[in-house]
Structures are given as structure tokens and as C-alpha cells.
Specification:
By secondary structure, the protein is an alpha+beta fold. It is about 30% helix and about 25% strand. It has one domain: Nuclear Transport Factor 2, Chain: A, CATH 3.10.450. This is Lipoprotein.
């Protein structure tokens, strides 16, 4: 009798060891990694921090003349509009889709970006020259940053909030020098719009003292 019970016990033990795992069973290594690397106590990134990071990346791309990187921020559907001065003119300001920007940026094609204040002469330049000589005419990486707030203002009409209602904008302001009675200030503004959870660039606006 004891031998019979022992045999039954051994057979049961072997059967348990050979029992197959449920279909689809596997170790979720991704889930384990997430648990190990996640920081539940880390504060959420604020909207201002996200836009500030995008602003800084755009300025770095301009400073490095990395226009491929710059193009990655262009709104996929609305494109980006460039305004020479504070007054945004939707009819005459140069606007590019992301595809067109990437197409013409490497070329020597001349575009009319607007007119010089005072003389009224048209300003014609390639994409690279406009970005390098007009948009980033000074090192704005050393400027004063603000979100949805104007720091610089002159005698040029500023209609940003009318043309881009309810959108976020950044301002990168360089104060004027005492030598020129602080009238040689300049500022570079980026207008952003949220699209599918990411902030994209829809407007690039330069501003300075005009005659």
C-alpha cells in the first residue's frame, strides 16, 4: 500500500513540473524597465517649460545654421509665416509649408520677405540669408526670455495677438546700448500652436526700432 501511494505521489510531482504555461505567457521586460526607471515623485513638466525648451532649440538651430533641425518645428499643416517687423501682414509676409521650406532652403532662390521700413525697398534674399542675416541678426541665445509677454516695443504696430489669437508666443529681447540711447534694441518672437500634443512653430517675427 505504501509503495502504491509513493508511486502516485511521484507521478503527480512529475506532472506538475511538466505543466505548460498559459498561452501567451512571457516576461514583460518593458514593464519591468518602466517600473525601474519611472519617477512617480518627479513633478510634471509645465507648459512654460515645454515652450521654453522649444524656443531654445530653435535659437540654437538658428545660431548653428542647422536649418534641417529648424524645419522639424514647422507646423505640419499650417506651415510658418515670417514677418520682418512687429506688424504681421498675412497677405504679404512670406509663408512656407514644411515641405516648401525644406525644398527651397538649400537653394539660391530669392524670395521677397517684405519691405525695409523707411525706404520701402523690397528685401529679397535666399532662405539661408534671411534666417542668418535678418532673423538671427544678433545672438539671441544671450537674450532675455519671456512667454506671452512683450518686452520690447517701438513705433511699429504690434498686431501679433490679433493675428494669432489665443496662441502662445515667446520673446527673446536684447536691450539697446547706452551709446545709441537704447534705441538699437532687437527682439525675436516665435509663435507656437499645439498640434496633436506638440507645440509647432507658426510664426517668426522680428521687431526693432523703426524710423
Amino acid at each position: 500500500m505504501k509503495k502504491l501511494l509513493l508511486s502516485i505521489f511521484i507521478v503527480s510531482l512529475v506532472a506538475c513540473k511538466k505543466e505548460p504555461k498559459p498561452n501567451g505567457y512571457k516576461i514583460n521586460s518593458t514593464a519591468q524597465t518602466t517600473v525601474q526607471t519611472s519617477k512617480p515623485n518627479q513633478p510634471a513638466i509645465t507648459r512654460e517649460e515645454i515652450i521654453k525648451e522649444a524656443n531654445d532649440e530653435l535659437m540654437k538651430a538658428l545660431k548653428d545654421k542647422d536649418y534641417k533641425r529648424f524645419a522639424e518645428f514647422i507646423h505640419p499643416e499650417k506651415g510658418v509665416r515670417f514677418s520682418m517687423y512687429a506688424f504681421v501682414d498675412p497677405k504679404n509676409d512670406k509663408q512656407f509649408s514644411k515641405v516648401d521650406f525644406e525644398k527651397y532652403q538649400p537653394t539660391k532662390t530669392l524670395f521677397t520677405w517684405g519691405s525695409y521700413d523707411g525706404s520701402g525697398d523690397p528685401y529679397r534674399a535666399t532662405v539661408n540669408d534671411y534666417l542668418g542675416k535678418w532673423v538671427f541678426s544678433k545672438d539671441f541665445t544671450a537674450s532675455q526670455f519671456s512667454l506671452d509677454k512683450f518686452q520690447g516695443g517701438g513705433n511699429s504696430l504690434n498686431n501679433l495677438e490679433n493675428i494669432y489669437p489665443k496662441l502662445n508666443f515667446t520673446e527673446n529681447y536684447i536691450k539697446g546700448t547706452e551709446k545709441n540711447s537704447e534705441m538699437d534694441w532687437k527682439t525675436l518672437r516665435f509663435v507656437f500652436e499645439d498640434f496633436k500634443g506638440k507645440y509647432y512653430l507658426v510664426g517668426v517675427i522680428n521687431d526693432q526700432w523703426t524710423i
